[in-house]
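Reply to dn_fold:

You asked what the input looked like. This is it:
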Amino acid sequence: MSETPIDPAEGGAPAGPAGTEPSEADPAGTDPVGAAPADPADGGEPDAEALRKEVEALRKEAAKYRVKSRELSATLATAKTPEEFAEAAARSAALEVELHRERLARKFSLPDELAALVQGDDDDAREAHAKSLARFAVAPVPRPGHPGGGLDPSARTTPTDPAALAAAVPRNRR
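and this is what came back:
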């Protein structure tokens, strides 16, 4: 009598193809007929699904490196030489000093001529110098005939009485 595979529905262990036993990697025997073990270290070749997953992982990794390469290329294209960077840093420092001078001139009410003379190596030295220059600043004299602010006294005032306002409105009658 020949040996027949046990049917899994009867509760026995499934058998592989006729005359073969389930593999160690797949003890349940669910490998398709003729499929090789998934681990090439076991001496066999990986199956198609394992190869697809590996190729997909490699493609993702390559895409990540391509994106990183593009980003670095864009960064490199906008990168400055050390000389350009030093020049930009010096220009930035000069602009910061100029801004501080302008702020001090506004704070101490210095005219433009005296604001340009504010000197000092740091913020405190420039502020002390601006204070000393402020002693020589003369307050601007208002021009004659023009008051310093407020309304012009020679202008007619508008009445606030509603009856007077209504009387001021011209009416066209035919």
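The chain is about 45% helix and 0% strand.
Hope that clears it up.
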